[in-house]
Structures are given as C-alpha cells and as structure tokens.
Amino acid sequence: MPSRKRSATRKQREEFEAGFTSLDGLFERAERAQGELDSRREAAYRSRSCERKMHYDTRADAEDAIARCEERGRHGLHCYRCEFCGGWHLTSRQG
Description:
Blueprint: H1 6-18, H2 23-51, H3 59-71, E1 78-81, E2 88-91
Antiparallel strand pairs: 1-2
C-alpha cells in the first residue's frame, strides 16, 4: 500500500516524472524512424521494379524482346517506362 505522506507522494511523483523525456525528443525519434522506414520501402520498390530487371534503352528494343519471348512460348508480357532509370522494362502486368 502506498504511503499517505505528502512528502512521500511528492517524491514518488518526481521519480515518476523524471523517467519521462521531453515529448520533442519522442516526436523527433518517431519522425526519424518513419523516414528510415520510408527510405527502406523506396529502396525495396526500386529494387523490385528496376534494378533486378533487364534494361532496354528504347521501347522498340523492349518490344523486340517481347516478340522473342513469344516465339519461345512466353506470352502476356508488356513493356513500361521506368520511373527510376528512364529505360524500359518488361512485366506480365497490364498497365
């Protein structure tokens, strides 16, 4: 059972409040963590949509690659302009 003395209660409150850091630091850490998470997501997205794929300089080169794939039995490919490298990549998703 906690003490009923005012001095003891005040001391307990001061110890409790001393354990808190300023809220500014808390918000700064949260913003920094969110920024790091956003950076990791962007890097993962870039890797999936650009860096791991074949790069074609022109749309015609990408369409030639699609035609070669269709000759070998791979159908349903499309090409798209990459927002990261400005080149062209192939995808099976229609866009």
